[in-house]
User: Fold these one by one.
Assistant:
Number 1:
Amino acid sequence: MPVMSYANAAKLAVAEAMRDDPTVWCVGEDLGRGGVFKQYTGLVEEFGPQRISDAPISEAAIMGAAFGAAMAGTRPIVEMRFADFALCATDELVNQIAKARFMFGGQSRAPMVIRKPMGMWRSSAAQHSQSLESWYTHIPGLVVCCPATPQDNYSMMKAAIACDDPVVYLEHKNIWSHEGEVDTTKSVDFGKAALRRSGRDVTLVSWSHTANLCAEAADTLASQGIEAEVLDLRSLWPWDKAAVFDSVRKTGRLLVAHEAVSVAGFGAEVVATVAQNIPMKTLPKRLGSPRGLIAYAPNLEDQMRVTAPMIATAAQDMMENEPA
Amino acid sequence: MSLPNFDQKAGLDRLRMMERIRAFEETACRAAIDEELVLGAIHLSIGQEAVATGIIENLRRDDYILSTHRGHGHTLAKGAQADAMMKELLGREGGCCGGKGGSMHIADFGVRMLGANGVVGANITIAAGAAHGIKLLGGDQIVVCFFGDGASNRGPFLEGVNWAGVFNLPILFVCEDNQYSASTLTSDMTSGSIADRARALGLRTTEADGNDVTTLAATAAEITARIRETGTPEFLMAKTYRISGHTYFDPATYRPEGEAERMQATTCPIARLREALAEAGVSTDELDGLAQEARAEMDRALDAAREAPWPADETAFADVQDIGSPLQEAF
Ligand SMILES: Cc1ncc(C[n+]2csc(CCOP(=O)(O)OP(=O)(O)O)c2C)c(N)n1
Ligand SMILES: [Mg+2]
């Protein structure tokens, strides 16, 4: 099985889809030179500048025009560069793309992949670091996914391109270079969590890069005799309630961790849904960033970070503070 | 070619400022590459120093400017202290934003520099709003809004420039045309001319050589005086060239080979002014002295920044909001 980076895994998926389907194309700033994170390097050489299209610094037009082109029969992959800049195209995504099919009585579809690299990355400060995935889970009409591994960035990109619904595709900026084996025959369905580790004591639910941190925390916990089960949701809408329910039925303990601000983060949704359905041995817990802004100075930036040790400590607390 | 009424003192002042901007950025760049002291991306305005210098020398301390991600030059020219700016780039206590913003969010409200911006084009509507505020308060200050050629393709360009026209606001929009938008040649992604867009929105529009600081300063003097007198917005297209890459770590291999070197040799505003001053009789020693002074100042700024502590941990939660502050309500 080939080993490749998170960035190259998505690129391979894009290239394969473009070879298979001439209506697939990519549009965004600087794509002709490989894109800002080099996740398009080499594609313009193979597919030409029409299908790997440069764009003016016009996020609203990139999103809106891609939507128009989608309604006219193409399958655009929209590159927003940083999830933060996608906010410049919010009307196009939320009021137009997400609602078009419904408002027009099912006459139109918007088969688009909207790539929004997210998350904290080397002192990028408040306007280049945000994790806003929960915003999009709130918008009916959108599929939301947050791959955490090269394998998933390959398989989920394939699924996203094939999907007839608009997919908000949030890659994490801090893991472009992470390497892993990629099985190109493996497909993924949205709404299916990945079981990253099984265990009987506590269920750790996460997505995006924090799922990797949960796996790390589970190793630490194992050395202390605590068997954590790690579920990487991979897609947040739809999300794999069945897998989470099954796991919590088994462990009786739920900890959800994510990089985004804890308040009104998607962890709240997971905890509430489980709490309404599954009796637990301890109070469930969510772990996210404080409701503060991400600073440039590393010691300030770090205070907004959820780390593997924090996840492990939170899980230990749940094991120790068991109600009698 | 020496101008008949070349003002030597003004020329030396301009050279001093441009050398300071260049030295600030070269020092920051060294600190980033050699010592990894600068944490995030920095966008250099090497080759573009004349735009900040020639325009801002016409402003009063209480006039406002707004800048972009490439904002060190504008900020220094408006009068911010190199010390506090360097500390900001290193993310230290005493930085002009307390280490929270870094290069891309540099701001010094003490000299009415209302911020660089990480979002391209976002400052254009905000600048129009600052001018709107001046008008509401009956002030006689003006606003200068700097933005790049690439920013003119964002919606806020249309909305902000139109706003200034509709409300007749005391603002100068300066499009600092360095020809590139990150790795993209802006002309490849721009329909028609940017200056014509401003004209179509009804603004008196001037096109200038942004690398000839002497002429640019004179042009800006006329324009800013007119805006102050009439309260009517204007637009200035300043043609320049980004000698460095988009960020300090961008090798800019997308440019035709030799372009940057050729442009540096022919258009560098510092070299051009030095030449004019030399012709006017200023000695090479004196000219070199200005560069040395500037470098020494920036070395001191870097030394001070290197010694400065990290911001106090609790500042991470300060200045978010008053009501419902994370200092009071953690999660
Ligand atoms: C809304 C938005 N889109 C994209 C970016 C990424 N970006 C940062 S600088 C830049 C190029 C800007 O070009 P220009 O306006 O000409 O300014 P210059 O960098 O040349 O000074 C881009 C695309 C951004 N920061 N904000
Ligand atoms: Mg430019």
Number 2:
Amino acid sequence: MSEVVKFGRPKGFFETFERRPGSIKKNMSYCPGCGHGVLHKLIAEAIADFGIQDKTTLISPVGCSVFAYFYFDCFGLQVPHGRSAAAATGLTRANPESIVIGYQGDGDLAAIGFNAFIQAANRGENYCVFFVNNAIYGMTGGQMAPTSLLGQKTTTSPYGRNALTEGYPLKVCEMVSQLEAPVYVERVALTSPANILKARKAVRKAIKISMEKKGFAFVEVLSGCPVNLKLKPADMDKFIEENMTKYFPLGVFKDVADEREPVKRATPVYDRAKVEETLYRAMPGGNEAHESLESPLFDRELRVKIGGFGGQGVLSLGLILAAMGKYRNLNVSWLPSYGPEMRGGTANCAVILNKGAIGSPIVDSNCDLLVVLNRPSLDKYLPELGENGVLMYDSSTIKDAPKVKPGQKAIAISAGDIAEEFGNLKCANAVMLGAIGAVLTKYYLTPADAAKFQETAEAAIAECFAGKDKIVAMNAEACKLGYTKMQNAQS
Amino acid sequence: MEYSNKLLLKGNEAVVYGALLAGCDCFFGYPITPASEIAQTAAEKFPLLGRTFLQAECETASINMVMGASAAGRRVMTASSGLGISLKQEGVSYIATMELPCVIIDVMRGGPGLGNIAPEQSDYNQITKGGGHGGYKVIVLAPGSAQEMCDFAGLAFDLADQYRSPVYLLTDGVVGQMLESVTLPAPRPRRESPEWALDFKVNPRTNYLTSIYMEPADLEKVNIHLNEKYARIEENEQRCEEYLADDAEFIISGFGICGRVIRTAAERLREEGIRAGVIRPLTLFPFPKKAFRKHAEHAKSFVSVELNNGQMIDDIRLAIECSRPVSLVNRMGGNLVTVDDVVRHVRKLAKGGN
Ligand SMILES: Cc1ncc(C[n+]2csc(CCOP(=O)(O)OP(=O)(O)O)c2C)c(N)n1
Ligand code: SF4
Ligand SMILES: [Mg+2]
């Protein structure tokens, strides 16, 4: 191998290695007979010949080629051990116009980085990977690699790799070529001049595929590490050709480059109008549609708790109330039961409405309006009702009238029954919402605010079930019904 | 059509809106409760604006995707919770060393181990002291509402650029899951790739990014440079909200959901005639030492309210150089500290108890 490394320094390398600290600026740090240097030359020559240096980022792994960025005259990124494929994904997704070259050793790619690698391959990320299989961990002093051969003695397999304990050498080309996405998969070796020529062709083909944005291209390179395999450079080639290629046969495993269309990625949109259209809420009247409330009820914080079985619409009733508050320019918070409380099939949420800043969003005392749709919630939350608090309960599930303290009100509405009659039990929460409106109208709201109740409720329902027109209409109807029924009951 | 920028959003949704409006280009994440709505909202909204959303295969991958996208000169974000945040730490250390800007959200859940999905604040020490290997720091913001989740996303990107540093939004499951009214800011134009970025459209190919310095002298220089930056951050970026603090005898402190609980508690204590006030840190690194020191001049006693085993309390003690007693009101395992818990504790302090 030593004689074939002789051709001159290709243009894709720096003239002097300014990125390399210290005084040695002309030489690479690889051992004599090391495959890395040869593969570097093939890649450097290709990026120069293709005129893509300005656009190319080469990702240096952790391993003997950790300093690859010293040498390549292009953008350089050095990444954590095994994370090359993830970093490459980030680069190419963020900037689809750039050309990204991954360069990894066998420990880096096939051990610590295998998941990142195989996932990037499977997604068909648009970049190419050169995989240096030297059957050893070079940098750390000759430990066993996932690609070390059976019987191969390394510093961590001193008795020779044993399939029973260490498993078999990992056949990466064989695996990756089974996936749908990869475009091109070939295994080459850096031994005879003929093999190096093949490797050169493979390197150029893989880079071309990246330039054409056709997706994921992969070249495994059987490569020498004479130092750690304790072989003379001349015997190194023999080892690769006689031992490694038996288990890791050379050749093209997959090539669908001609059939593939270029990968297309979206262009980020920053146009102000388009961004607003996407993230803001379409609403006739815009922000002006939010009108403030006059009723003195809202001069202080209002604390609401709603409890019931999961599926009774407890959370969405809270959401609708919160949305209504937002429409009337209040600060609102909605906190669903969450974590340990969720167990046992009961759900609850706390809603706070406040003209000023809301402190704790948790309602566990001083509750102004408690709405319960089942018995367990009544028992659990009634002690939290404040001095002049209002309890509203579904009398279709809670039969005996609960006892409340003097000053507190307990108001029944058979929300479940009414909803069933209406044709959908799921609307019990909307019936309850209407009933709340009637109670507020009777006791608390100014006529002007009361007149807006149904309109605000409908806007809130539309917001909470956005895009589901039928459900919106049905709930608005049920809300009206609940309002009328409660009004009749109260008069 | 007219548009309203007033929305009802969960904290986890608001942060995505805030990021997009601040010009975030890419999101890489992996699902985990109670942070999943961030990835879900990003999955929905990013593609609508031609931006990149990708569900990574794991948190290790997602943080390295963040590294790649940041290196490419783009605004990029990721989000997770506790255990997922632990997995990201290797990458964050590299990112901090290469001085790449990015935004990371940690919606904390119960720990240690697999813990549970209920709210906790037990990643405080991990994140505010750096989080991964080596002596680096990250800027840590502490949003306590959906509005702040939105606004701090924008602030985080700006600080990340200004200091070339990862910036965390460290919050808890309650703030992530809670829905509140949010007023969205105006959209910002795309931020141009910085001069160090590996972006061929604006920069020469001489740019490279690395975090390996084999010569101890070189690596020491890098560390000195980073620590000078952290000193600048400590000097310039301390932020907190002070409430009823100016004449307070008792300063109560907490962030995230606790920052909300203590606000209500202080109001209640004032009604009882107990002079309680609040310092709510908005930055956890840098810790708002100046505010604590200032109020240590008049406050008798400090209280740290936390959903963990008592972590921020050490920073309060350091900030006031142990010049006043600092006591802890805490819950763990996903339980919340209530307003009553805090009120009872301070009442006892006011009566001369401990
Ligand atoms: C997280 C982590 N674990 C372990 C290491 C130590 N390490 C450095 S290089 C290496 C193996 C590299 O072997 P390979 O990828 O085959 O590259 P080669 O040196 O053979 O080219 C290891 C384990 C590291 N840098 N990072
Ligand atoms: S140790 Fe092996 S892989 Fe590393 S530079 Fe030397 S020969 Fe190459
Ligand atoms: Mg190797």
